[in-house]
């Protein structure tokens, strides 16, 4: 059989990757507090239990607020950086872009500890805003990566053509460039939003009195009776992430189709 | 109309434009011709306002352009990539520049867009998506979009280079017709000498950021001022020559001949170079009278083009061959290599350059 071993390898790889994740919804609907087979029967009560926990709700709202602000800030910063890196030549461009993209590969725990030390030294108290600062730092490189490919696919002369036809620089950017990279902007925003929503380490270090959802989740793992509810919450988060990422990818592909360009990749 | 005086452009240490001086009158089809990197596109972009001049001055219609932003200049441009707005329809593309004009209402705008599309032969294409068009159609949209604003000058940056041969020839004729019809100044950038010769009233040949020669196509072809210009435009044979009298020259392999002053370019001293176009030489077939000026040679190679045959003929063994082009008339044989041939030439079509 041609490529037989490679096919087996690919299947094993996918099982290894997704089996643990698949267990999440299975136990979320299991009628029993112990996470073990055999399953005890089907129930939706853990989801109902979620609805009753007040602390969870405030953690959820806190997370949504942080994710929204982070995604907005990251996307705005990324539009500027992506445009500069694809359109202009300036001294020190390579090291500057390298430094901006570095948080992509920097261990998050190092970033988190460093930020904590700096904030404490500056005497800034830990609030949702400190989490937002940390999240913006790690989300911006992702947004830049997505937007760079959007700007790269754009013919540099379309903006000049708009100026030539009587638009000001800003007018040309607004009427031509922005609509053309809009799908990239939506995609970048949603991915930054998802990363911030799911992020744990930085939130754990920088969060103040109000925990984010992942931090709250982690704190609940100490109570065995809460574990099925955590599983239910995890299932919902998984679903939300999948939906958001699908929308992001759809936006990116539609943008390429609309301008008749060629698909040069993306995160999905 | 367009006045360029000692125009200079530096990119850091790179000297892109060196003292460009030219006057382009109203209604002229003017071409900037040169190899890539000669500065022709930089000069065009400077006229459009996309490049700041490092020195010199640029006026359009007598008005100094140094403080006029590109979006306020009376010029419009057709970009090499056409720069069609891919998210807009054909009509929205063509009408883009009219949106800013408060004096034109929607009906008038619609009418102008229709007229512009009609002018470039795209009537009824208004509602199409721009990215679904072919190369030639995009070209026409770009043209309509620029001309709808009635600019004083239309700038064209290698507009035909992306089209196939047939389409290119068709667009060349069409651009020429359009330019005569609307009568505005066209400035075309091209690296294709044939295209420049076909379309232009006047051509500026540029090398290394300087204008080497600026003349009408016929003058440029028949009286190139330097060897470099002669080599860039068409094909030319070069033979070593010497000045043996006031207007007498001895050309290697061809012998002595009287050459009129108008055919002797600046810089030709005692040692010089004679230039001959392939079509000014002709192989004599059996039965023709041998004229005063002729030479014997051996055909070393030939290339058959259908309408023409190009022969390489060596005059003196060991020297480089000269190229001769012959029309393939009825009854005229195609000669094989290693055939002896008698070649007639005409001193009136010879040009003398400096060595």
UniProtKB/TrEMBL annotation, chain A:
Q: Which PROSITE patterns match?
A: ABC_TM1
- Name the SUPFAM superfamilies for this protein: MetI-like
Its protein name is Spermidine/putrescine ABC transporter
Name one cellular component (GO) term. plasma membrane
Gene source species:
Litoreibacter roseus
User: Which residue intervals define the domain ABC transmembrane type-1 in the entry?
Assistant: 60-248
Q: Return the similarity comment.
A: Belongs to the binding-protein-dependent transport system permease family. CysTW subfamily.
Q: Main localisation, per the record?
A: membrane
What's in the keyword line of the UniProt record? Cell membrane, Membrane, Transmembrane, Transmembrane helix, Transport
Subcellular localization, as worded in the UniProt entry: Cell membrane
Q: How does it sit in the membrane?
A: Multi-pass membrane protein
A GO biological process this protein is involved in? transmembrane transport
Checking Gene3D superfamilies in the record gives: MetI-like
Please give the start and end residues of each transmembrane region: 12-39, 59-82, 94-120, 126-147, 180-207, 227-248
Q: Does the keyword Acyltransferase apply?
A: no
Q: Which Pfam families match?
A: BPD_transp_1
UniProtKB/TrEMBL annotation, chain B:
What superkingdom does the record give? Bacteria
Q: Which keywords label this protein?
A: ATP-binding, Nucleotide-binding, Transport
Q: Does the keyword Nucleotide-binding apply?
A: yes
GO BP annotations listed: putrescine transport
**GO MF assignments:** ATP binding; ATP hydrolysis activity; transmembrane transporter activity
- Record's InterPro entries? AAA+_ATPase, ABC_SmlMolc_Importer, ABC_transporter-like_ATP-bd, ABC_transporter-like_CS, Mo/tungstate-bd_C_term_dom, P-loop_NTPase, Transp-assoc_OB_typ2
GO CC term (a single one): ATP-binding cassette (ABC) transporter complex
UniProt xrefs under SMART domains: AAA (SM00382)
Residue ranges occupied by any ABC transporter domain in the UniProt entry = 2-233
Query: What name does UniProt use for this protein?
Result: Polyamine-transporting ATPase
The species is Litoreibacter roseus
